[in-house]
User: Fold this.
Amino acid sequence: MEMSEDDINTEEYPTEIHDYLAAFEKSLGSVDEMLNTMMSVSRSELLQKLEPLEQAKLDLVSVYTLNSMFWVYLATQGINPKEHPVKQELERIRTYMNKVKEIADKKKSSKLDKGAASRFVRNALWEPNAEKEHTSKTPAKGKKRKMD
Assistant:
């Protein structure tokens, strides 16, 4: 599938798109490498190593990638993908991706230790009753009053 420099030069196409084609070919190579890496490990092995949230992310990225590639295929065939059901499918997948992201964000947020928080608040706030108890137990310093 790789095109040599000679093949590119012998093809007839506008020279202004040469850089775009070279970048596209490089991107295809990256996709091919990534797919080979993913396909080298069985899906069941991969899923066993992941937590459920990570499994959901992997599934969503996989199906989104597949549908995106189909979108590109439709465009190369002269079919407007915006008018094809693949558009709704991509939107549906994006919705689920956002839901998984929300779950992941909630999981990452710090959890409140209610006991520690209540102790912190109790100790940080001034309590007038405790102040009276403290002063009544401590002998008064300074002038002493006469008792009649």
Q: What stands out?
A: Residues 52-76 form the longest helix (25 residues). The helical segments are 5-10, 18-40, 43-48, 52-76, 86-108, 114-124, 128-137. The chain has seven helices and no strands. The two ends are 111 Å apart (CA to CA).
